[in-house]
Amino acid sequence: MEKFSGKIWVLGDDIDTDIIIPTEYLALKTVKDMAPYAFSPLRPELAAQIQEGDIIVAGKNFGCGSSREQAPEIIKTLGIKCVIAKSFARIFFRNSINNGLLLIENDKLRDVVNEGDEITVTINESIEHNGSQYPITSLPQNLVDIINAGGLVKAMRKLNGLD
Amino acid sequence: MGMTIAEKIIAAAAGAESVKPGDIHTVELDRLMSNDGTTHLTIDMYHQLKNPHIADVNKLVWIVDHNVPCDSVKTAASHKKMRDFAKENGIKFYEGAGVCHQVMIENHVTSGELIFGADSHTCAYGALGAFGTGVGCTDYLYAMVTGHSWLLVPETLKFNLTGKLKEGVYARDLILSIIGMIGANGANYMAMEFSGEGLKTLNMSDRIAICNLCVEAGAKTALMEVDEITLDYLKAHGREPKYSFKSDEDAHFAKVYDIDLSTIKPIVAKPHFVDSVVDAKECVGTHIDEAFLGSCNNGRLEDLRVGAELIKGRKVHPLVRFLVVPASAEVYKQALSEGLIDTFMEAGAIVMNPNCSVCWGSCQGVIGENEVLISTGTRNFKGRAGHKDSFVYLASAATVTASAIKGEIATADMLE
Amino acid sequence: MGSTIIEKIVRNNVGRDVKPGEIVTVNVDRVMIHDIFIPFVASKFEEMGFTKIWDPDKAVLIYDHLVPASQVDDTRHFRIGNEFVEKYGMKNIHRSDGICHQLMTEAGYVKPGDVVFGTDSHTTTYGCVGAFSSGIGYTEMASILGTGTLWIRVPETIKVEITGNLPANVMAKDIILKLIGDLGADGATYKALEFTGDTVEKMSVASRMSMSNMAIEAGAKCALFTPDEKTAEYCEIELTDKERDLVGDADAEYCRVLHYQAEDFVPVMACPSNVDNVKPVAELAGKEIDQVFIGSCTNGRLEDLMAAAEVLKGKHVAPYVKLIVTPASRKIYRQAVENGTMAILAEAGAIITHPSCGLCCGRTGGILTDGETVVATNNRNFLGRMGTSKVGIYLASPKSAAACAAAGKIVVP
Lengths: 163, 416, 413
Known about the structure:
The complex is a heterotrimer of chains A (about 160), B (about 425) and C (about 425).
Chain A: E1 3-10, H1 17-20, H2 31-34, H3 46-49, E2 55-58, H4 70-77, E3 82-85, H5 90-98, E4 102-105, E5 118-122, E6 126-129, E7 132-135, H6 141-149, H7 152-159
Parallel strand pairs in A: 1-2, 2-3, 3-4
Antiparallel strand pairs in A: 1-5, 5-6, 6-7
Helix pairs in contact in A: 6-7
Chain B: H1 5-14, E1 24-28, E2 31-35, H2 39-46, E3 60-64, H3 73-89, E4 92-95, H4 100-107, E5 114-117, E6 131-134, H5 137-146, E7 148-152, E8 156-162, H6 171-182, E9 191-195, H7 204-212, E10 221-224, H8 228-236, E11 255-260, E12 267-269, E13 277-279, E14 290-294, H9 295-298, H10 301-311, E15 321-325, H11 329-338, H12 340-347, E16 350-351, E17 372-375, E18 391-394, H13 397-406
Parallel strand pairs in B: 2-3, 2-5, 3-4, 5-6, 8-9, 8-11, 9-10, 14-15, 14-17, 15-16, 17-18
Antiparallel strand pairs in B: 1-7, 12-13
Helix pairs in contact in B: 2-5, 6-7, 10-12, 10-13
Chain C: H1 5-14, E1 23-27, E2 30-34, H2 38-47, E3 59-62, H3 74-88, E4 92-94, H4 100-106, E5 115-118, E6 132-135, H5 138-147, E7 149-153, E8 157-163, H6 172-183, E9 192-196, H7 198-202, H8 205-214, E10 222-225, H9 229-235, H10 241-244, E11 256-261, E12 268-270, E13 278-280, H11 281-284, E14 291-295, H12 296-299, H13 302-312, E15 322-326, H14 330-338, H15 341-347, E16 351-352, E17 373-376, E18 392-395, H16 398-407
Parallel strand pairs in C: 2-3, 2-5, 3-4, 5-6, 8-9, 8-11, 9-10, 14-15, 14-17, 15-16, 17-18
Antiparallel strand pairs in C: 1-7, 12-13
Helix pairs in contact in C: 2-5, 6-8, 13-15, 13-16
């Protein structure tokens, strides 16, 4: 199983899509242009601090709010390897899968970690933090198929005989 | 030696028997208008003064009109600063009531007054025979604190109007023609005075449109003779004239222009200068993306009537965004009761709340890269309505509406 | 074993019985794309290698978030949208007619039993006429445009039964806010809401729309009302037996059932900065406000404007307070002109804008700054939604909002 480690950024409950990327910046031309404004209503300095391979650990209902797909795309663009939350809002969940951003549900981790801690994720198995293991449930097959294809765009390209 | 209207108003405000062009006088101001374009800067400077105070709060009128409703956190902060200061100091304050000059004319200005406005189009007040002139916020602050200011007495250009505008030709075409004739600096530092029999054929809305645009020829102020039309307007709005000046027979004018109104044709000012005027027919067929009917220049009831009459039973071209923005809440209410608003809505126009809108170009209906706007607004400078690489044509309400219907620049007589 | 409304809609769509948790592929009846996302939909669609839309008449493009344009690059979205429509032969496009969700139902694009997806989270709105509608991202929209299908997980259903008569100062908005407060912002995540009871049967389609619109704020995938005569009249159709049958069976299985007595409702507001932070207006009374916003796909309909006008008739907005009214559609604007509502609102000092998303989406339309407070009839009060993160947004019914505008502070209507 794929395994990776990363430094974590800790966020609270109900991190909504307006926090992830305010509407004001949605008409910027590319997701890359928008990325510096990620999380700006809550933590304006955060986007600049995040480094490639970092992990976000949050509370419940992460990504609630609008259907803006820029939200997961921006998180991915910032270099976040995966988001671990107590729960995810459904549109955000679908959008993340379709863009190949890994989401992991776990209701215990958030309450024991501190920002800056390092954790290790073994996909479809568990998360390790300070020697403790937190099991992860695996995704349904149709979602695994999309992720394995490299996201929905690639899956559709395959369907259309392009790749 | 006689005096012009401008000289008489300055003399009265300076307490001098007579004044002549080139003199500098200290004048008492009747009113001080400021809007959200610059008031926040005035307030910042005010707080740096050693002994900040207001000479006469009753002279101040503050109007939020440029970005209404507020379009960004930056303007929200400057509006709040203005609102809080007005509230704290008891300054007459309007927000959302319309474009400042229209609100001033409807509610405050009277003949013979000397008014500073922290906005270049303050010269519009000349329609009521008042000396209105635009100032920067430093001049404004000085006047606000002391109640007076200094003024260089301007030379006056006289426009002697005869005849009558033809059907389908508007005051807007007249003033654009005049600006084209004398050039964008043709009246620099000067007063432009309008009189003659032809003036009697122009209603108050026409007169405001003419005076309002005089700054585009560089004029310090614009003035019209007070007549029955002026007095009727003032009376209807519950005001008395302060003075009803006319120029003396032997007054000195830097130049006198005789203009036969019947010779004026529909005009378009091409990008990017107001004096770049041509016969509207020369622009026919030019692609447009947006059309704007509104502003302190051409957003009054009379202008909306012209547009509504043309568009009734017709539709806005599907690829054109046609913004209709009444100049004030009063205009909106009247247009509502006359059915004009519904006519525009039925035709597919975008009807916005009274404000400066795309004439100011910072928020509502801004145009994008390489886009073309035809507008009844005041200016067509490069980038004025949005993207730095965009184009603005100025024309009358009739030409703008006809163009919105056709999807390209067209004159009203081209509509089937 | 009976079925819930969503189970019936999905069954009718896929042609076999389904149960919650099952993953099925549905045939899509209609899709809605709005201006903010059209550039992304267009580029993903082409990147996926599609060369035609599966059924161009089933796709609707609506410009609403960026009307009128407030930033210089906004009109790029219109240009890309216009090109896309032209290139792929779409006919259903609205460039300045109002908010997408209002137009989808008002212009007859959605019928009971339809399966509809939109690139906006408040697509749940169409449940007001008994359609299964839900928000998706632009990548999925691009794939639907190519294939006409989408996979979904059949949701469990939470039944919400409301009986009795509402107090005069309570609107449908107060009910949905109270429900979201009770459920929590994630209380219905992945689930369908189903509204029943004589209270909702008596409601207008417009009121039902306010409720289905906000279901997403409890995380719901969709929110459904049984189509009835009011629905038929609103949609200008005769209901078929299949449509009449879109009712939750007595023996259907619900994951949760909530019952409310209408008489118990009081005017409420969602306090900063979460929609589920709901309190009775009476507890908030006296708080000074700077602005009121009446509009949005939640509460910008004729009955909402009329309710506000009734409160404001003969009154004036309090000094230094702004009341911004943004009707939900061109049709509503014209109806409000016709019946005198606009004149009353204008006389009261309202700033009446063209129909669009306006302040609700926070790009223009009345942005606020630090320390300011706004009472608004829209659907979200998230941090920074209407300006800086130090703006307090209170979500309320149009009646409550209008009363606050006149008083200059929070008051019970």
